[in-house]
Amino acid sequence: MSPLAPVLHTVRTIRAWPVSAQQHARRNAMIALTECTQRRAEREDVERFLSARSTDPTVTRDSAISLHA
After folding, report:
1. What letters, b where the CB count within 10 A reaches 16 and e where it falls short, cover 41-58?
2. N or C, which end of the chain has less CB nearby within 10 Å?
3. Is residue 9 situated within a structural domain?
4. What element of type H or E holds 20?
5. Please, are residues 44 and 66 in contact by the beta-carbon 8 Å criterion?
6. How far apart are CA 64 and CA 66, in angstroms?
7. Number of structural domains, the chain?
8. How high is the pLDDT of residue 2?
9. Which domain of life is it from (predicted)?
10. Which long-range contacts link 37-42 to residues 24+ away (Cβ below 8 Å)?
C-alpha cells in the first residue's frame, strides 16, 4: 500500500463532495415540490367540493384563482 493512498482517498472524497451534495439537494427539492403540488391539488379539490355544496347564494368564488398558490 502506497503511503499516499490515504491522502489520495481523502482528495477524491473532497473532490466528489460538491457533486454528491448537489445531487442530494436536487432530490430533496424534487421531493418537496411533489409534496407541495399534491397538497395544493388536495386543497383545490376540497375548495371545489365546498363551493359546490355552498348554499349561500351571495358567496361567489372564482375557481380559476387559487387562494393558496
Report:
1. eeeeeeeeeeeeeeeeee
2. N
3. no
4. helix 5-53
5. yes
6. 7
7. 1
8. 87
9. Bacteria
10. 40/66, 40/68, 40/69
Hunting for cell 359546490 — which residue is that?
A: 52
CB 61 within 8 A of CB 51: yes
- pLDDT for residue 57 is more than 70: no
All cell numbers assigned to 8 = 489520495
Extract the C-alpha cell encoding 31.
421531493
pLDDT reported for residue 54? 83
Measured distance CA(35)–CA(28) in Å, rounded: 11
Report the amino acid identity of residue 36: C
Q: Write out the residue range of the structural domain in which residue 44 sits.
A: 25-51
- Confidence label for 30 from pLDDT (cuts 50, 70 and 90): very high
> Would the pLDDT of 59 be above 60?
no
